[in-house]
Amino acid sequence: MRLTIKYFASIREHIGIAQETFDLEPCGMSLNQIRTELASRSERRAEALAADRPVRTAVNMQMVPGSLIVREDCEVAFFPPVTGG
Fold first, then answer.
1. Where are the alpha helices (DSSP H) in the chain?
2. What is the pTM of this model?
3. How far, in Å, CA of 42 to CA of 65, rounded?
4. Are 18 and 6 in contact (CB under 8 A)?
5. Is residue 85 part of a domain?
6. Tens-place pLDDT, residues 23-41
């Protein structure tokens, strides 16, 4: 399953890249499973995407829960919660 992964704000700064393309197996993984898979690929990703860290997710620019099953060719974004004023 080919996905475009985007990282924003402090996650992007911690990992050191803004965007990448990944081929993940198997197809039909949830966002939580994808997050775990990405975190396992390097120490910096593990820190930025740790399960105990609050991270928001979007698929194709729509906010979604981590339980969402992602399909081929989606754009997945990870970013920290933000506050406004």
1. 9-15, 31-39, 43-48
2. 0.89
3. 24
4. yes
5. no
6. 877 778 999 999 999 999 9
Is 50 a domain residue? Answer: yes
Q: Report d(CA 50, CA 78) in Å as an integer.
A: 12
Domain residue limits at 30:
2-79
- Enumerate residues 6+ apart whose C-beta is below 8 A from 41: none
CA atoms within 13 A on the CB side of 18: 0
Q: How many domains does the chain have?
A: 1
Radius of gyration of the CA atoms of the chain, in A: 12
Give the sign of the dihedral formed by CA 75, CA 78, CA 83, CA 85.
Answer: negative
For the cut 70, the answer to whether the pLDDT of residue 52 exceeds it is yes
Which helix or strand (DSSP H or E) is residue 23 part of?
strand 19-23
Fill in the DSSP letter of residue 68: P
Q: In what order do the strands lie in the sheet with 62-63?
A: 19-23, 2-7, 75-79, 56-59, 62-63
